[in-house]
Automatic annotation (TrEMBL):
Uridylyltransferase (UTase) activity is inhibited by glutamine, while glutamine activates uridylyl-removing (UR) activity. Has four distinct domains: an N-terminal nucleotidyltransferase (NT) domain responsible for UTase activity, a central HD domain that encodes UR activity, and two C-terminal ACT domains that seem to have a role in glutamine sensing. Keywords: Hydrolase, Magnesium, Multifunctional enzyme, Nucleotidyltransferase, Repeat, Transferase. One of its GO terms (molecular function) is [protein-PII] uridylyltransferase activity. This is Bifunctional uridylyltransferase/uridylyl-removing enzyme.
Length: 861
């Protein structure tokens, strides 16, 4: 009988759920849908219990969100089976049959089976379970048994201990999500600034005796009615988003995934603007809502803490306007931001200037949040406010904390209207991992870290440079403006420089300082581009960059800002090879600025001298060195740096005509990059075979220098990055040396037994928001058969190997390659040698084949 009834219940459940969703589509009332789904499940569960009864004397209760009376379309049913006694075999069997029947009809139970004393014991060590049980709601069975548990849980509840446990739980959860609401794919339930933070406030308020709803908390005095309206508005927004995610994905999906963002934007009715996708508008709205939740979570958490842990000590007077109580900054009783708006910035300055302060009191935070509306045109024009704002950057400590708090409280965006445009702005460029405002503040944070001795080991040269740099606070202002024009259309560097110039004029910066800030904003991408896309062994490249920089002061500042910018872009984008390239460009440019080298000839001569000195230190005689160097022409010395020349000479001088291919490797940078030297008779398809090996091993080529000696031998050098998971190759260089040389032997075409056939997967973002591919082929003036191929595309496994196949098919020789990888975006530059590309038909076919090779890979379903 029961088995025959289950399909009927399943159809009933499905039909009623569909009707509830249809009603929601008509009115978009989130709470109505959540309550309707809860009622439907209650009814079906009770019908099911007629067929599969509970053990004698047991009680069934709803927990968690289901217990609160809310059920999302694909959420689990969080259930408690409360037993009066230890279960026997029959009781266990009944429970198992009930749960199996729930699964059969389309419910997804998440259950907890226990007796009262077990629940009371478990909650002592599990605050999450304690919270779920405190929200328990009777469904069926023994009502007195559940009431007894609920009564004992309330009696056992210690509000102070509960607060401390839940705060620690929130801190751990925030850390799991990188302590930011501005993730690329935020979790609308668990991320900072999302639904869980709102639920946390309700749990703590209930434990503190403030009530069970936002209305109750407002009546208690812990929320103003303006705050209540704001929190109800964002609560409804997050509920709707979570509902839409469940309905769109057809599962209990709480992450705002890349591949769901376009469809979500369409559901919400967002339209593309001239420079932003609908999905970017959607995500900006999400981040704005998350910021409101973060603001109110911080204020109310602080307020509840002060209520539960009152301080009876007299405050310590800090100034005529501020005092300290429990190491928290407070406005003095007679002070008010509304009467004295200049105290807004003074509050942040006072926080910075008093190391004993841990933060601001709830009253001060709340007052600041409401005072944000005072930051208007008159406030911005006030000279005292402008001077105080500059002083915030000039303090010895607390700069990042002050700026983050100003941004969170919506004071920074109101003071700098141009900054307001980038708050919560996400760009799907495949390498930025944060919103523009979050990235900007991370750049400031990185610059601050350069000044701190405890972080000097991370960026030793940057630490040395910034601690000898006068008025380095100017770098923080440049960081604020470097991306401030993102999303407006046009060149954001030029537009941002205009904004920075106006800011410096308004805030009375010295002309020399203003010029530096404007330069840094306008050229903040230049050093990165020169270091990663140009050949630093070419003296002309260095002289061109030095003409842009102009002075040593500018060079130092641009070097610091560039590193801070790259490291704040994406946690995976920085590596030791990028660090080395930037340091090399910095040192080479510094030499030119200090007049150590004045032209290309002097650079070349110095390079030979430096290489000779290094070779002598290795114990090699000049005669042996010169004998090997006779095999190399001037082009070799122009395209290789002194330490590379010395290394090549040391490895090859005694085996210039070796009978077997020679492969040598050494570290490049620190632990994640290696340099590979390949020396073998030059043959057709050599570069292709090398790329094939590297691709099979998951070794990403970052730089390639292809050279043929006067006697026809290939002397090729590669910089490759090791896979993140792979440490064996770094520890055992002989593995690469053996495998690659084996693969290069005449007639040997296999990849070897050690091949890992590594393939990295396309990210979801790259599949949903691919980079439009572009290819440009330009003849170079120094040689009529030399060409520069520049391409931009979405990264994919085996990309360079695919390009090498095209070069081989068209009989084109590669002289050098610069591979710039920015997350899922690649920007590569190749120097090619080919007499056939002058023919229009050959050039068109070549470009067609290149475009085909870089076409996005078809994702595996």
């Amino acid at each position: 009988m029961a088995s025959g009834t289950l399909p009927t219940l399943k159809r009933l459940l499905h039909k009623r759920r569909q009707a509830a969703v249809a009603a929601y589509r008509q009115n978009l009332q989130s709470d109505a849908l959540l309550k309707a789904l809860r009622r439907i499940c209650d009814q079906v569960v009770r019908k099911l219990l007629l067929l599969y009864p509970l053990p004698e004397g047991a009680s069934l209760a709803a927990l968690g969100g289901y217990g609160r009376g809310e059920l999302y379309p694909h959420s689990d049913l969080d259930l408690l089976v409360l037993l009066p006694d230890a279960p026997d075999q029959e009781a266990r069997q009944r429970i198992e049959q009930l749960l199996a029947a729930m699964w059969d009809i389309g419910l997804a139970p998440s259950h907890h089976v226990a007796q009262t004393h077990q629940c009371l014991e478990q909650v002592k060590h599990d605050s999450s379970l304690q919270t779920s049980l405190l929200e328990s709601r009777y469904l069926h069975g023994s009502r007195p048994l559940l009431k007894q548990l609920q009564k004992q849980l309330k009696q056992q509840l210690n509000p102070r201990s509960f607060f401390l446990a839940k705060r620690a739980e929130q801190q751990a959860r925030h850390a799991h999500y990188q302590d930011t609401p501005y993730a690329l794919e935020p979790n609308c339930k668990e991320s900072p600034g999302a639904l869980r933070d709102l639920q946390m406030l309700l749990w703590l308020a209930k434990a503190a005796g403030l009530g069970n709803s936002w209305r109750d908390i407002a009546h208690s005095g812990e929320l103003t009615f303006a705050e209540q309206r704001a929190i109800v508005r964002v609560d409804q927004a997050f509920k709707r988003l979570r509902i839409e995610l469940h309905l769109l994905s057809g599962r209990a999906e709480d992450r705002v995934l890349f591949d769901l963002q376009p469809a979500l934007a369409d559901i919400y009715g967002f339209k593309a603007s001239h420079n932003r996708r609908p999905s970017e508008i959607l995500m900006q709205r999400y981040y704005w809502a998350a910021r409101v939740v973060s603001q109110l979570n911080m204020i109310l958490m602080q307020s509840i803490e002060e209520r539960l842990f009152p301080c009876h000590e007299a405050p310590r007077i800090l100034s005529p306007h501020f005092q300290s109580r429990q190491a928290l900054l407070e406005l003095r009783p007679e002070q008010d931001f509304a009467r004295s708006p200049e105290l807004i910035f003074a509050a942040f300055l006072t926080l910075q200037q008093n190391p004993s302060l841990h933060g601001m009191s709830a009253h001060t935070l709340r007052s600041l949040w409401h005072a944000r509306r005072l930051v208007d045109e008159g406030f911005r024009l006030d000279r005292q406010n402008r001077l105080q704002f500059i002083q915030i950057f000039q303090q010895q400590r607390g700069i990042v904390r002050a700026l983050r708090l100003m941004n969170l409280m919506n004071i920074l965006p109101r003071y700098l209207p141009v900054f307001r445009r980038i708050v919560g702005q996400m760009q799907h460029d495949l390498f930025h991992a944060y919103t523009v405002d979050e990235h900007t503040l991370k750049v400031v944070r990185n610059l601050r870290r350069f000044t701190m001795p405890e972080h000097s080991h991370e960026f030793s040269l940057a630490h040395q440079v910034i601690n000898h740099y006068p008025r380095h606070w100017l770098l923080y202002i440049a960081a604020i403006f470097h991306d401030i024009a993102k999303g407006r259309g046009g060149n954001h560097s030029d537009l941002g420089a205009q904004d920075a110039q106006q800011f410096c004029f308004d805030h009375e910066l010295e002309a020399e300082d203003a010029e530096l800030v404007v330069f840094l904003v306008r050229e903040h991408l230049s050093m990165s581009m020169y270091a990663q896309k140009h050949d630093l062994s070419d003296p002309k490249v260095i002289f061109d960059f030095v003409r842009i920089v102009g002075t040593e002061r500018r060079l130092n500042a641009l070097y610091l800002l560039t590193i801070a910018d790259i490291c704040a872009t994406n946690p995976t984008i920085w590596n030791s090879w990028k660090a080395k390239l930037l340091e090399d460009l910095y040192q080479l440019s510094l030499s030119v600025l200090q007049h150590q080298h004045t032209d290309s000839l002097s650079v070349l001569e110095q390079r030979r001298l430096d290489a000779s000195s290094e070779i002598r230190l290795l114990g090699l005689l000049d005669e042996a060195r010169e004998k090997f160097w006779q095999l190399l022409d001037e082009d070799y010395f122009l395209r290789h740096e002194a330490h590379d020349i010395a290394w090549h000479t040391q490895q090859l001088y005694f085996q210039a005509n070796a009978s077997e291919p020679i492969v040598k490797i050494r570290a490049a940078g620190h632990s994640d990059a290696i340099q590979v030297l390949v020396y073998t008779p030059d043959t057709q398809g050599l570069f292709l075979r090398i790329c094939r090996y590297f691709d099979a091993q998951g070794l990403s080529i970052q730089d390639a220098r292809i050279y043929t000696t006067r006697h026809g031998w290939a002397l090729d050098s590669f910089i490759v990055l090791l896979p993140n998971y792979e440490h064996m190759l770094a520890l055992d260089p002989h593995l690469i040396e053996h495998e690659l040389s084996k693969n290069l032997r005449k007639g040997h075409n296999t990849l070897g037994a050690q091949s890992r056939q590594y393939r990295s997967a396309h990210s979801r973002r790259a599949q949903v928001f691919p980079v439009p591919s572009s290819v440009e082929l330009t003849p170079l003036a120094d040689n009529e058969n030399t060409w520069e191929l520049s391409l931009t595309t979405t990264d994919k496994p085996g990309l360079l190997y695919s390009l090498a196949q095209v070069f081989e098919r068209h009989k084109i020789s590669l002289q050098s390659a610069k591979v710039l990888t920015l997350g899922d975006r690649v920007e590569d530059v190749f120097r090619l040698l080919s007499p056939s590309l002058h023919r229009q038909t050959a050039q068109q076919q070549f470009l067609k084949d290149i475009l085909h090779a870089i076409a996005p890979a078809t994702p595996h379903l």
